[in-house]
Model the fold of this input.
Amino acid sequence: MLTLAEIRAVPKVLLHDHLDGGLRPQTVLELAGETGYRDLPGDNVEELTRRLTEGAHRGHLEVYLDAFRHTVAVMQTPDALRRVAAECAEDLAADGVVYAEVRFAPELHTERGLSLDQVVEAVLEGFARGSANALQQGRGIKVYALLTAMRTAARSLEIAELAVRHRDHGVVGFDIAGAEAGWPPSRHLDAFQYLKRENFHITIHAGEAFGLPSIWEAVQWCGTERLGHGVRIVDDIEITSEGAVRLGRLAAYIRDRRIPLEMCPTSNVQTGAARSIAEHPIRILRQLQFRVTVNTDNRLMSQVTLSSEFRRLAEEFGYGWSDVEWLTNNAMKSAFASFDERLHLINTVIKPGFATARALSDAVVPASMLGPRHTG
Done:
């Protein structure tokens, strides 16, 4: 069984992580004091953490999302955004992540007068600062931004244009997020058409709280390159009592086209998208060779790291180094960085990192294999 420490030591890739869902609780408290925000549900780290994570145990996406109003509220100044972004990069690097795409919705951070461009610039400065701090500690990481538009609002084209403006400064893609039911991705077609004309990257939250129609629209109408979560694609897969598998046309298309699934196992259970880790579709989808990736979603609300997610999968499904490396390579191949950068990280960081991990594991001989101990 892989240990958490062993998993933390190998290079990992993260594609689905929300900036406003990964703050340090102490930072939330300090920023609230600095900005005058008085509605925090706790005045110490323990109480605040409990209150911000309690929605993660209610089994519903909208309840889960309620905690974000507090984290977003303290991320309304350039200094706050820079600090949160820098700490994000540092925390991910400390967990062994070498490449990350972290998403945030600029439109949620303008309540104190910041322009959308100022929001993006502050976050990108924070990522650069945190990455430099991590490198000084011997941990290399590259962090890019994904700009998210809220699907319940009407600013998606504006956010798409914002993302393209900053494409050469650290923004690599566009996303829509928020409540799925009643807010289909096709409502934002003008944004997606613009992005395709600009040869820009798209990922869409789909198939988490809503089913196959959301996934179908994201792929066939909006042209998404990746699916945020995509858990409900399992609804288009039939498994007979004899174990025979039949893929519906949408599931077959997703697999055949190698469309990546940005799965977040713990979060998916907490929002009701999956009943348990044991029943999470990631197992069958991995067996069927879908382009599955493992992600954190919201590290604070879900109380996870990427290493802990892999550890849970190892415990539940018996995953070993070959599984973790396969999932990691899936993520790196699916990243929005350039082909050269992806290939460089795979060949010079990821493959050597896992080779070292295997060598260390092979060098450890279990006590049961040593035979009786002789003394004297």
Notes: The radius of gyration is 21 Å. The chain has a mean pLDDT of 94.
